[in-house]
């Protein structure tokens, strides 16, 4: 079985591998019923929440989506088909996946000892498609939720509702948690088009996680071209009409107030995941809501995504290195492309405390349900890469 060695870490140190700045090439929305729409109806706008707000409020009426059904990459692939139809050419990439999958890979250097996980992969038309292993995700979640709540602590469900990120990388997802903090911080229209009444009543709004705006970006790390999809929390101001203009996205996070060095180290480790998630989608700013142990919003802090690795190196305990994360990811993806060279279902896995990532081929035909029938039909019947289109055109002109 092919394995990728995680140690020694020194081989990933030094200047970072080449990076291609993420650029949005498409998007889609899930509406309030979690139905797919090829538009931006669920795009939200940032407006600061009230300090002192109770993050526990409304937990009893929280409307949470049932994600026990395995949706594979269906929505992402559906959006890619739309992009390709509009562009008239294939979205060329070595890897297509949700942001959450690459977050797990990229966070491995900060999680050498405890990380574990399972992913499924397949090869189609020269591209590796990766998804989370759904059964493993559900099993890991059930195991975590079965653990007794420590005395004086709130439940896992309550802290997820607050916005305490679940960075147990057993089951990364394309969506973020932190639904109450998002509801307190977002408005459905730009500020000048939103009523004062709505803004002031956000604390009373029913919270749900059905509606989402998902951005699809083209990026690259090292020698691998990537297409990633993931939820974006909001934009500051308005989204520019020009596709070439930068988008002032923000990511919303929460963390416990820092009381001592132990809390500071925990926060520093969270910052690695904050940074990776925003880095991968090209989100330039992160707004962190600090909360008390009882879930009261205490204060806000704005972070520039690009400055986080330097901040940790200069002022923190240097528990992680951004260049190591980038170089590890570049090396792993380049290696993975030499292993997954045929179709079928592949399993990417790391056991808890394991020092290697293993890749195993489970079947030699098909795609294990990772790819939707509509996507395969579209790719095999309708779309051609731009160079193939030109060759076909030249042949027709020659015959004419």
Automatic annotation (TrEMBL):
<dbReference type="GO" id="GO:0110155">
    <property type="term" value="P:NAD-cap decapping"/>
</dbReference>
<feature type="domain" description="RAI1-like">
    <location>
        <begin position="20"/>
        <end position="376"/>
    </location>
</feature>
<dbReference type="GO" id="GO:0000956">
    <property type="term" value="P:nuclear-transcribed mRNA catabolic process"/>
</dbReference>
<dbReference type="GO" id="GO:0005829">
    <property type="term" value="C:cytosol"/>
</dbReference>
<dbReference type="GO" id="GO:0000166">
    <property type="term" value="F:nucleotide binding"/>
</dbReference>
<dbReference type="GO" id="GO:0004518">
    <property type="term" value="F:nuclease activity"/>
</dbReference>
<dbReference type="GO" id="GO:0003723">
    <property type="term" value="F:RNA binding"/>
</dbReference>
<dbReference type="GO" id="GO:0046872">
    <property type="term" value="F:metal ion binding"/>
</dbReference>
<keyword id="KW-0479">Metal-binding</keyword>
<dbReference type="GO" id="GO:0005634">
    <property type="term" value="C:nucleus"/>
</dbReference>
<dbReference type="Pfam" id="PF08652">
    <property type="entry name" value="RAI1"/>
</dbReference>
<protein>
    <recommendedName>
        <fullName>Decapping nuclease</fullName>
        <ecNumber>3.6.1.-</ecNumber>
    </recommendedName>
</protein>
<dbReference type="GO" id="GO:0034353">
    <property type="term" value="F:mRNA 5'-diphosphatase activity"/>
</dbReference>
<comment type="similarity">
    <text>Belongs to the DXO/Dom3Z family.</text>
</comment>
<keyword id="KW-0539">Nucleus</keyword>
<comment type="function">
    <text>Decapping enzyme for NAD-capped RNAs: specifically hydrolyzes the nicotinamide adenine dinucleotide (NAD) cap from a subset of RNAs by removing the entire NAD moiety from the 5'-end of an NAD-capped RNA. The NAD-cap is present at the 5'-end of some RNAs and snoRNAs. In contrast to the canonical 5'-end N7 methylguanosine (m7G) cap, the NAD cap promotes mRNA decay. Also acts as a non-canonical decapping enzyme that removes the entire cap structure of m7G capped or incompletely capped RNAs.</text>
</comment>
<keyword id="KW-0547">Nucleotide-binding</keyword>
<keyword id="KW-0540">Nuclease</keyword>
<keyword id="KW-0378">Hydrolase</keyword>
<dbReference type="InterPro" id="IPR013961">
    <property type="entry name" value="RAI1"/>
</dbReference>
<dbReference type="InterPro" id="IPR039039">
    <property type="entry name" value="RAI1-like_fam"/>
</dbReference>
<keyword id="KW-0694">RNA-binding</keyword>
């Amino acid at each position: 079985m092919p394995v990728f060695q995680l140690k020694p870490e020194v081989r990933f140190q030094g200047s970072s591998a080449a990076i291609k700045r993420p650029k949005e090439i498409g998007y889609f929305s899930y509406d309030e019923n979690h139905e797919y729409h090829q538009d931006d109806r669920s795009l939200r706008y940032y407006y600061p929440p009230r300090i002192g707000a109770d993050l526990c409020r409304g937990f009893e009426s929280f409307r949470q989506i049932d994600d026990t059904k395995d949706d594979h990459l269906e929505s992402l692939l559906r959006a890619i088909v739309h992009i390709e139809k509009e562009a008239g050419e294939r979205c060329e990439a070595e890897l297509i996946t949700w942001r959450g999958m690459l977050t797990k890979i990229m966070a491995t250097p900060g999680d050498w000892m405890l990380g574990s996980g399972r992913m499924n992969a397949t090869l189609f038309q020269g591209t590796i498609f990766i998804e989370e292993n759904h059964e493993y995700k559900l099993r890991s979640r059930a195991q975590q939720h079965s653990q007794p709540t420590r005395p004086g602590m709130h439940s896992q469900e309550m802290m997820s509702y607050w916005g305490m990120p679940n960075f147990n990388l057993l089951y990364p997802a394309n969506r973020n948690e932190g639904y109450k903090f998002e509801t307190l911080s977002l408005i459905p229209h730009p500020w000048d088009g939103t009523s004062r009444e709505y803004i002031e009543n956000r604390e009373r709004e029913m919270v749900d996680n059905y509606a989402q705006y998902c951005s699809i970006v083209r990026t690259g790390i090292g020698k691998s071209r990537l297409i990633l999809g993931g939820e974006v929390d909001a934009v500051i101001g308005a989204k520019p009409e020009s596709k070439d203009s930068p988008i002032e996205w923000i990511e919303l996070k929460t963390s416990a107030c820092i009381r001592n060095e132990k809390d500071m180290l925990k926060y520093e480790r969270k910052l690695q995941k904050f940074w990776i998630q925003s880095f991968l989608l090209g989100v330039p700013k992160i707004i962190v809501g600090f909360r008390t142990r009882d879930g009261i919003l205490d204060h806000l802090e704005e972070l520039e995504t690009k400055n986080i690795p330097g901040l940790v190196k200069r002022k923190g305990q240097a528990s992680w290195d951004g260049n190591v994360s980038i170089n590890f990811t570049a090396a792993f993806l380049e290696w993975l492309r030499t292993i997954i060279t045929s179709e079928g279902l592949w399993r990417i896995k790391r056991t808890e405390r394991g020092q290697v990532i293993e890749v195993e081929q489970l079947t030699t035909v098909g795609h294990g349900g990772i790819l939707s029938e509509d996507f395969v039909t579209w790719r095999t019947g309708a779309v051609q890469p731009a160079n193939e289109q030109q060759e076909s055109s030249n042949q027709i002109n020659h015959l004419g």
